[in-house]
């Protein structure tokens, strides 16, 4: 996150940290994600770029994590991954990450996955097709870079407020032109000071509607970070209510 502030996971208890286990058993941070029910995390398909790296056994998910380099066993909940479901229409052939959405099923222990606490709680999905007006303020969260030129991620969870940008604007030739599909939306600041960045992908963009926070976007891509006319691009979650329902069998996730 560029231009943001340190965030307490208690204020974003759906935030998930997805790790990949390398050959020497080291845990490498891969992507953010959002807990949408006790056993399911929504993230970006591009977090799993090669088929061999989609082996669920190589991944783990940590919920309730504030700091990357310390483990607070009292609040964190760590899970193995039962399955990884990439969207069938995920397509990066045009290098625009169309349908950049994926589901991770957490492996249950003694019949249960995550347990709600002050630090762990699922986020609501917005009703299908719900539209918010351009300029609407939403919030992005992640453990990604604080500045594009750094080579390391943020050691702590960070958040920033960004504003929704109209599709017409984001499709202008001096913005992203035809790269923006109907499954995406853009968000940024008028002064380009705040943005998601590398390492934040898969994580949440949430917007408050009627005093509730809803997961409207999955952090997907962008040309650099916090650059003029290069806003962050997000997967439009309201296009995928039925897909999530079909894959998880949870009708409750669409009702908000
Ligand atoms: C990335 O590489 C990435 N500025 C994510 C978000 C943005 C850029 C890059 C948006 O994961």
From TrEMBL:
It catalyses: Preferential cleavage: Arg-|-Xaa, Lys-|-Xaa. The lineage of its organism: Eukaryota, Metazoa, Chordata, Craniata, Vertebrata. One of its GO terms (molecular function) is serine-type endopeptidase activity. GO terms for cellular component: extracellular space. It comes from the Eukaryota. This is trypsin. It is found in: Secreted, Extracellular space. Its EC number is 3.4.21.4. Residues 1-249 form the Peptidase S1 domain. Coiled coil: none annotated. The chain holds residues 198 to 453 of 459 of the full protein. Keywords: Disulfide bond, EGF-like domain, Hydrolase, Kringle, Protease, Secreted, Serine protease, Signal. It is an enzyme of class 3 (hydrolase). One of its GO terms (biological process) is plasminogen activation.
């Amino acid at each position: 996150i560029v231009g943001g502030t340190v965030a307490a996971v208690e204020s974003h208890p759906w935030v998930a940290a997805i790790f990949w286990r390398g050959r020497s058993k080291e845990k490498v941070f891969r992507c953010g994600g959002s807990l949408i029910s006790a056993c399911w995390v929504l993230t970006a398909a591009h977090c799993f770029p090669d088929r061999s790296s989609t082996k669920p056994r190589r991944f783990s998910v940590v919920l309730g994590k504030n700091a990357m380099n310390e483990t607070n066993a009292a609040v964190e909940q760590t899970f193995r991954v039962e399955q990884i479901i990439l969207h069938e229409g995920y397509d990066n052939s045009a290098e625009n990450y169309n349908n950049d959405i994926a589901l991770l099923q957490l492996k249950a222990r003694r019949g249960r996955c995550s347990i709600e606490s002050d630090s762990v709680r699922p986020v609501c999905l917005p009703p299908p097709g719900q539209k918010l007006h351009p300029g609407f303020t939403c919030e992005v969260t992640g453990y990604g870079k604080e500045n594009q030129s750094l080579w390391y991620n943020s050691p702590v969870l960070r958040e920033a407020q960004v504003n929704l940008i109209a599709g017409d604007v984001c499709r202008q030739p001096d913005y992203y032109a035809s790269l923006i599909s109907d499954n995406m939306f853009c968000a940024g600041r008028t002064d380009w000071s705040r943005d998601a960045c590398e390492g934040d992908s898969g994580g949440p963009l949430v917007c408050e509607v009627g005093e509730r926070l809803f997961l409207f976007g999955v952090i997907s891509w962008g040309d650099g970070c916090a650059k003029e006319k290069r806003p962050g691009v997000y997967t439009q979650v309201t296009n995928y209510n039925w897909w999530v329902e079909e894959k998880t069998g949870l009708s409750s996730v669409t009702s908000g």
